[in-house]
Amino acid sequence: MRTPAAQTGHRAGNRAASPSGSLKILLIEDERDIAGNIWDFLECRGHVIDHVVDGERGLARALEGGIDVIVLDLGLPRLDGLELCRRLRTAGNGVPVLMLTARDTLEDCLAGFEVGADDYMVKPFALRELEARIGVLHRRGLPPADALQTIGDLVYAPATMLAKRGGKSMPLTVAQGRILALLMRESPNVLRREVLLQAIWGEEGGSFGALHTHVCALRAIIDRPFNSTMLQTVHGIGYRLSAEA
Ligand code: CA
After folding, report:
1. Strand ordering across the sheet containing 154-157
2. Residue 204: its pLDDT value, please?
3. What is the model's pTM?
4. 51 and 114: one domain?
5. How far does residue 238's CA lie from ligand 1's centre (Å)?
6. Which pLDDT does position 31 carry in this prediction?
7. Positive or negative CA dihedral for 110, 30, 96, 162?
8. E-strand spans in the chain?
9. Boundary-marking domain end, from 111, 141, 171
10. Which residues of the chain have pLDDT under 50?
11. Residues 166, 94 share a domain
């Protein structure tokens, strides 16, 4: 369902504009009360909202492109949020995804990271916090000014968010790309967990556990198919990327 106001894209234009500027946000949420509240709030803040109520249509809309951030409910009819996210990433789409979950369990949230979600919030949440997290994800998702980076046979192109190793081209999520870019810049030195946390989540959340899950997902992409391990964990300290096995 695309609502008429989502297409005209403005209402209550006298309200304060968001510090993130006007973003195009795809809201995939089947609970109409929750969706209505989110939509009203974000639209009043100057964003353009596209709303769909089931996973299949959400995926199709996401793959059309032109979206800055996706707000994705975990429990959806026709295609659940985890599977939607997995298919989106498999298709090479790296748009930032913030997952909403009513299930307050770490397993659900970590499962979300494993399929490529960038952040999550547990219902109920404050709408202002939702907007702040969306802003962080969007800023994080902007391609860094850095040029192509190379360590050993691993190449990362921030502009396309593609990592290449052994002739294989691998799409990364926003979080994975950000982590890899920082590790490459610091290589062969150790990058402390606190520095990565700050770079990925800013002042607004994140945890060592969530960071570790992103790092494990990144390692599965850039190391597992190859003969040498470049991304190393320095226990209790942080991570290091090195061409030396
Ligand atoms: Ca739901």
Report:
1. 149-151, 154-157, 162-165, 168-171
2. 66
3. 0.59
4. yes
5. 36
6. 94
7. positive
8. 24-28, 48-52, 69-73, 97-101, 119-122, 149-151, 154-157, 162-165, 168-171, 190-192, 231-234, 238-241
9. 141
10. 1-17
11. no
Report if residue 6 sits inside a domain.
Answer: no
Question: Which pLDDT score, from 0 to 100, does residue 14 have?
Answer: 33
Do 137 and 160 reside in the same domain of the chain? Answer: no
For residue 151, the SS3 value is: strand
| Among candidate residues 109, 141, 173, the one where a domain is terminated | 141
Q: Is 179 helix (H, G, I), strand (E, B) or coil?
A: helix
Produce one character per residue of 60-94: b if its CB has 16 or more CB atoms within 10 Å, e if not. Answer: ebbeeeebbbbbbbbbbeebebbebbbbbbeeebb
Ligand 1 centroid to Cα of residue 234, in Å, is 39
Q: What domain range includes position 103?
A: 24-141
Look up residue 22 and give its two tokens. Answer: 């006007």
What is the C-alpha to C-alpha distance for residues 242 and 239, in angstroms, rounded to an integer?
A: 10
How far apart, in whole angstroms, are the C-alpha atoms of residue 178 and residue 118? 11
CA of 36 to the centre of ligand 1 (A): 13
Our count of domains for the chain comes to: 2
183 lies in some domain: yes
Task: Please give the pLDDT value at position 148.
Answer: 77
Centroid of ligand 1 to alpha carbon of 55 (angstroms): 10
Count the Cβ atoms, other than its own, within 10 Å of residue 194: 12
What's the gap in Å between 219 CA and the centre of ligand 1? 31
